[in-house]
UniProtKB/TrEMBL annotation:
PROSITE patterns: RESPONSE_REGULATORY, SIGMA54_INTERACT_1, SIGMA54_INTERACT_4. This is Two component, sigma54 specific, transcriptional regulator, Fis family. PANTHER family: TRANSCRIPTIONAL REGULATORY PROTEIN, TRANSCRIPTIONAL REGULATORY PROTEIN FLGR. It comes from Acidiphilium rubrum. One of its GO terms (biological process) is regulation of DNA-templated transcription. The modification 4-aspartylphosphate is found at residue 52. GO terms for molecular function: ATP binding; sequence-specific DNA binding. The lineage of its organism: Bacteria, Pseudomonadati, Pseudomonadota, Alphaproteobacteria, Acetobacterales. Residues 2-114 form the Response regulatory domain. The keyword DNA damage does not apply.
Length: 448
């Protein structure tokens, strides 16, 4: 883990930094928010920022949001300064680290941040085991790999597994969700930009390609990339160098590319939305992850894995699933795949006080449309009568917001279930928010 400390290392914050280093963290330090942001733009591999509360924390948070950094921030300040702690959390800090620092607390914070990183691969199904064996076999090569599968099947965890098995394991693994970045900014996100390259380019920033130098770059939801940018991506792959936006010379990069998508790229090629030459370049090796409903033998192992994980995280003691709870899980369609199962187990752990999680403690819904619930049965068959008299726009809004709620705020997942692009979903949410609707917050570190 790499931590950026913003503040002086002279006092107690320095003690906290040394404790973090003794627990294996790598440290960067900056005295001011400006110099911290500079480091972040050029380093782009920082997992956590610890910021002294004497610095302008709200400004740091605003700046991070503005530049689309999702790095977690922990505020550090005096133990008895309750007002500072409240202000820090209100400003968006993940935690408040009281000073003088407590070694155990620092260890707990580091553990909490690293649990945000995707967990290890848990696999039991024979088809998945065969897929892992193939992934392991190709991991050593430098070939590009195209990972396909429905949303939530584990494409990113598989990509991390490949990186970990490769000769590049010690270099960075960088993931970029192409759908989560506004189209106009994706080029600079990929290739970086020079200061003043466009309005808003307040300083030079390295792109994900440079950040992943000698390591692996995962281009997630690649099908969402604009066709003009696909041309630039192809050139970067062929020539092994990138042009920063506003830059005047190509910069050599050594990056292994993994691409992931839940769309049918061949259909996108036919529709003229995806370049065939880029497809062939990326699809040197193809790995397809089956949906969870097609590998039921993974369900019990994964379910217990998530129960153990969240029980440990919440310090709620050992828990296990009853036979009837397990039967319920086996019976469910899991449209949201492993992500949906993980969320369901997280909820079950939080809501079950005892050691045994029973069927009733597992809240999974087969329906996806609550406010028009009367109109859609548990099996998903529409009952049109109760929809009559409602405006199309209202029904659509209810459908979108309830689906988002069902996905615990996860935009990517909700867009997949709704069958619309994540961009279209974001636009709708923006409109609803402007009209005063309450929008479910994004969890799991997913950008709003
Ligand atoms: N085999 C697995 N073992 C353990 N955890 C898994 C496994 N597969 C998926 N997960 C977990 O499920 C969640 C979703 O996985 P991941 O983000 O890799 O899916 P994805 O296919 O990339 O989704 P999307 O297409 O929406 O980006 C993550 O929290 C991940 O850690």
């Amino acid at each position: 883990m790499r931590i950026l400390i913003i503040g002086s290392l002279q006092g107690e914050l320095g003690v906290a930094a040394r404790i973090a280093a003794s627990r294996g963290a790598m440290l960067d330090q900056a005295e001011t928010i400006e110099s911290g942001m500079r480091l972040l733009r050029l380093e782009a591999r920082i997992d956590l920022i610890i910021c002294d509360v004497s610095r302008d924390l709200p400004r740091l948070m605003a700046q991070l949001a503005n530049e689309r950094f999702t790095t977690a921030v922990v505020a550090a300040g005096a133990q008895d300064d309750e007002a500072a702690a409240v202000a820090a959390i209100r400003a968006g800090a993940r935690e408040y680290l009281p000073l003088p620092p407590d070694a155990e607390l620092i260890a707990a914070i580091l553990a909490a941040v690293s649990t945000d990183l995707p967990s290890a691969l848990v696999v039991r199904d024979p088809a998945m085991l065969a897929l892992l064996a193939k992934a392991e076999q190709v991991a050593q090569s430098t070939a590009s790999i195209l990972i396909t599968g429905e949303s939530g099947t584990g494409k990113e965890v598989l990509a991390r597994f490949i990186h970990a098995q490769s000769r590049r394991a010690r270099a960075p693994f960088i993931a970029l969700n192409c759908a989560a970045i506004p189209e106009a900014l994706l080029e600079s996100e990929l290739f970086g930009h020079e200061k003043g390259a466009f309005s808003g380019a307040i300083a030079r920033r390295v792109g994900k390609f440079e950040a992943a130098h000698q390591g692996t770059l995962l281009l997630d939801e690649l099908a969402e990339m604009d066709i003009r940018l696909q041309v630039k991506l192809l050139r970067a792959l062929q020539e092994r160098c990138v042009d920063r936006v506003g830059g005047d010379r190509p910069i050599p990069v050594d990056v292994r590319i993994l691409a992931a998508t839940n769309r049918d790229l061949l259909a996108a090629i036919d529709a003229g939305r995806f370049r065939e030459d880029l497809f062939f370049r990326l699809n040197v090796v193809a790995l397809h992850i089956p949906p969870l409903r097609e590998r039921p033998s993974d369900i019990p192992t994964l379910a217990q894995h998530f129960v153990d994980h969240y029980a440990a995280l919440n310090e709620s003691g050992d828990k296990r699933l009853s036979e009837s709870a397990m039967a319920r899980l086996m019976d469910h369609a899991w449209r949201g795949n492993v992500r949906e199962l993980e969320n369901a187990m997280h909820r079950a752990v939080l809501l079950t006080p005892g050691a045994l999680i029973d069927a009733d403690d597992v809240s999974i819904e087969t329906r996806h449309v609550a406010p028009v619930a009367n109109a859609v049965s548990a099996r998903g068959e529409p009952g049109m009568a109760s929809l009559v008299g409602r405006r199309v726009g209202d029904v659509e809004q209810a459908l979108i917001l309830e689906t988002l709620q069902h996905c615990l705020g996860n935009r990517t997942h909700a867009a997949t279930i709704l069958g619309i692009s994540i961009r279209a979903l974001r636009n709708k949410l923006r409109d609803y928010a402007a009209q005063g609707a309450v929008i479910p917050a994004a969890h799991n570190g997913v950008a709003a």
